[in-house]
Amino acid sequence: MKGTKNIDPNTPQLGILEWFRPGEHEQVKAAIEDFKKLGIKHLRTGISWADWYVEGTPEWYDWLFAELAPHVEILPCFLYTPPSIGEMPKTSAPPKDLKSYADFIDEMITRYGDYFEWVELWNEPNNKVEYDFTLDYSWNKFSTMIGMAAHWAQKRGKKTLLGGMSPIDPNWLQMMAEQKVLDYIDAVGIHGFPHVFDQQWKGWDINIKSVRDVMEKFGYDKEIWISEVGFSTWQDDEVKQYQEFKNVLNANADRIYWYSLKDLDPKNSTVGGFHLDEREYHFGLKKTDGTEKLLYKLLEKHGVEEIKEQNYIKKQYKISEREKYTLITGGAGFIGTNLASRFLSEGKRVMIYDSLFRDGVEENLQWLQKEYGDKLIIQIADINEERILQECVNNASEVFHLCAQVAVTSSVTNPVHDFNVNLKGTFNLLEAIRKSEHQPSLIFTSTNKVYGNLQDVKMIENETRFYPEDAIMKKHGINEKIPLDFHSPYGCSKGAADQYILDYSRTYGLKTAVFRMSCIYGPHQFGTEDQGWVAHFLISALENQPITIYGNGKQVRDILFVEDLIDAFMLASKNIDKLAGEAFNIGGGPENTVSLLEILDTIKEKAGKEMDVSFEDWRTGDQFYYVSNTNKFKEATGWEPKYTVQEGVENLVKWLCENRNIQLPENLNPPKKVAI
Residue 47, exposed/middle/buried by CB under 10 A (0-12, 13-18, 19+)? Predict the structure, then answer.
């Protein structure tokens, strides 16, 4: 993790709050790996008094402490009264014998004290509605219980944290001071959930000052810890989570525990009950399926210090732009960056709408911002943030919908995310356009996967490639008359979105066009083996990394250099009245076909590298052959590709070498300076 060196001494120590249920061994191991990636050295976790007497719990905590201790400084939070010894059969009730809480702390220190330096003391007091006590009496019992436990913990050589106030209440702290509880406390904890549970949020400065004022009044000089702080992304607002994280880093506190590492699994209940408040399920840096949210990615890449300086992360909740702009969803991606650059280089305004979900795209956004300045409008938002999406559409002159989950493999492992982005997100965009006053045109990037694996097309196989038995198809490629046959969740979500877009043109008169794309490649592409395979092969070759091919390598694609695709977009936009309601197959066409084996030879020539290649089984939905018949679009607009495979690959090699500080192969000339 970057940014862990030379940390500003005014930056509070950062920790994570994460609760583990008995038996969650794999979750703990996974969390430790995340702590390593993020550079987290402090962990606050709950130790349940109520669970201690359940069979197997002591053995669970034996394992948990030993597993965590080599990796993080553990702050155990001791809470929840066993119902059998409480004044009422609730874990939030105080014990009948207040000293029994101190006895439990003593037992924990004896058994696990070698694993921690601090103890957090908190056990929620009863309220007068449930237990028919006066509020003062309830808090008096609480202060007595905590005071005894804190006194004994200090006797046992431990430092003590007074459990956090939520909401922050200086009157409560004054009561603790008056009861002399703070005599045995080393740090005072506070909680804060700005704009989630704390709707009337006053800011960290005001809240922390109110706590310090109480301590100064009674002559105490204690550390202040923000022992629980977080922001729920239940409305898909990951930028706001990032912003609240930055805000708390500037708080005048000694330590911060961010809540939490991972969203709460929907099968579990919260303290308040089962799904009574959906906000409580979305506080994590990661989703329950392991998807990393924006804050996680930024922390992993930039670290605590540098995360404050990411000025390309921008969000507008109310669009105030007077000048119309081109809206590009997924605009920080490979194709979106090249498209935005074309418009911006012509002096037009562009709004990039992107969640920064894909790795590496933040580099594209920073590049665009540096190159084009105020002509670029940045909107970091999720495609399913409907209100913000509507605001952005309302002032757009035209829309290019490139936002997508792009990998077949990812769709198989996480079909819910694939559906939410590719289909639900597209539907939200269509509705936003339909509801807008001027209904801007929409150009959508679909995929050749809408045609399935083309199993009914008879193939011939030679030494390096497959090709169709049908001579006409071999000569011209696959046209739009091939029946749709969605394979894989990715094919289904993109195909359904494709059909929705065409139907919104028929039903509502929207000016929409669909590009069913083959393989696109070029600058600003951060290819992986799941998607963007030409760039992935080149990157692997240049960096001496092994390459895995799924299948026998004879599968054929027509590949299209991205500048040719951008030309097609510009023509489609210019001719949208004529093209509305139509789908077009777009790719390099029969003149630019390669098999995977053949492209490896080209890469070897252009990159000047030998490659370590291995083979694995075929993947779901893979096509032996797909070559676009682009005649329909050519006849409508006059478009045709300008770059050959050799020229395109050479240009991409040059860009990758420059971008990654790799020495240019001796057989290539330096790249020409072009606006891409």
Answer: buried
Cα atoms found within 13 Å of the Cα of residue 483, Cβ hemisphere only: 6
Nearest by Cα to 505 from 577, 570, 587, 575: 577
Domain contains 523: yes
d(CA 130, CA 220): 34
Say how far apart CA 647 and CA 9 lie, in whole Å.
Answer: 52
* pLDDT for the residue numbered 271: 72
Which residues 6+ apart lie within 8 Å of 591 measured at CB? 641, 644
- pTM for the whole structure: 0.87
Task: For residue 569, give its domain range.
Answer: 404-659
Sign of torsion over alpha carbons 559, 561, 564, 570: positive
Average pLDDT of the residues in 575-603: 94
Cβ contact 490:405 at 8 Å: yes
At 11, phi and psi to the nearest 5? -80, 125
Q: Is the peptide bond before 269 cis (omega within 30 degrees of 0)?
A: no
Which are the catalytic amino acids?
490
Residue 444 sits in a domain whose CATH number is: 3.40.50.720
**Cα separation of 497 and 430, whole Å?**
10
Q: Among 239, 260, 281, where does a domain finish?
A: 260
Give CA–CA dist 415/411, Å, rounded.
5
Total domains in the chain come to 2
DSSP secondary structure code for residue 350 in this structure? E
Task: Please return the burial class of 84, using the count of CB atoms within 10 Å of its CB with bins 0-12, 13-18 and 19+.
Answer: exposed
**For 540-576, what is each residue's pLDDT tens digit?**
888 888 999 988 999 999 999 999 999 999 999 999 9
First to last CA, the chain: 30
Residue 444 counted as domain residue: yes
* DSSP characters over 249-284: HTSS-SEEEEE-SBPPPTTS-BTTBSSS-GGGG--S
Per-residue pLDDT band at 619 (split at 50, 70, 90): confident
- CB neighbour list of residue 526: distance below 8 Å, 6 or more residues apart: 334, 358, 359, 360, 361, 363, 532, 535
Distance separating alpha carbons of residues 516 and 278, to the nearest angstrom: 38
Query: Does the residue 415 lie in any domain?
Result: yes
Within-domain flag for 74: yes
Q: Do strands 582-586 and 547-550 pair parallel, antiparallel, or not at all (unpaired)?
A: unpaired
CB 597 within 8 A of CB 384: no
Tokens of 580: 């509305």
* Cα–Cα dist 466/556, whole Å: 6
Q: What is the DSSP letter of 451?
A: G
The answer to whether 112 and 98 have CB atoms below 8 angstroms apart is no
The amino acid present at 366, given as its one-letter code, is Q
User: Which amino acid is it at 210?
Assistant: S
Strand, coil or helix: 268: coil
Within 13 Å, how many C-alpha atoms sit on residue 19's CB side? 18
pLDDT range class, residue 668, cuts 50, 70, 90: low
pLDDT for position 535 = 87
Q: Which CATH number do you get for residue 140?
A: 3.20.20.80
Pairwise CA distance, residues 439 & 512, whole Å: 10
Collect all residues with Cβ–Cβ distance below 8 Å to 274 and sequence separation of at least 6.
none
Alpha carbons within 13 A on the beta-carbon side of 177: 20
> 452 with 485: CB under 8 angstroms?
yes
Task: Examine the fold and report which residue of 260, 294, 314 is the final residue of a domain before the chain moves on.
Answer: 260
Please report, to the nearest 10 degrees, the dihedral formed by the alpha carbons of residues 602, 603, 609, 610 taken in order: -70
Burial class (CB in 10 A: 0-12, 13-18, 19+), 174: middle
